[in-house]
Amino acid sequence: MSVKLFDKWDTAGIEVKDPGLVRYISLRPVVVPKTRGRARKQFHKSSMHIVERLITRIFVPGHRGKKHYITSGHCTGKYETAWKIVKRCFEIIEKKTGKNPVEVFVRAVENAALREEIASYQVGGIIVRKAVVTSPQRRVDLALRLMVQGAYQKVKSGARDFASVLAGEIISAYKKDPQGSYALREKERIEREAAGAR
CB of 89 within 8 A of CB of 167? Predict the structure, then answer.
């Protein structure tokens, strides 16, 4: 008998196709993705299940921009609430695509993970912007953050269900559709800026 995520979806046959992200997207078999924050070693999140990282990201979507355009102070709550949102989101993905939602999510993360970004540093009296290669761990972190931020922004502007909006964001990223995915639009914008700063 195989161990299935949420007692529904098998992760055994799923493999990460992006070679740079293989060590940073964990798909170990678990029923409830929760480590309870017990392991406090460096880079522990690399061994956390990728779905658990999505669940914890829902608590803190993150500030957008340096001016704190979006605050996430009221997103905190019980783990079970975020757990139910992700489970419902995966059910919607399975219904719409007819595929294993965990695999769809992994492909979406791979597609939304940016490869280059801009670092700013000061030389004398001027600030220089330079294109830098993004580390694999940061690629996964930014992909998750942008997906949740995109969904959170849509929910704040309308009265829709967060699970369905997040499912739409993941499906659009999976299909490489920048019109429907905030994460892909931001990825393209940042990489375009980095290409101009080379």
Answer: yes
188: CATH: 1.10.455.10
- What's the total number of domains in the chain? 1
Domain range for 161: 4-196
Distance in angstroms (rounded) separating the CA atoms of residues 7 and 9: 6
Rg (CA), the chain: 17
Q: How far apart are CA 190 and CA 187, in angstroms?
A: 5
pLDDT along the chain (198 residues), means of 10: 78 85 84 71 80 85 62 68 88 90 91 88 85 89 90 79 89 89 89 84
Residue whose entry in the numeric block shows the structure tokens 């595929």: 99
Give the three-state DSSP class for 29: coil
pTM: 0.86
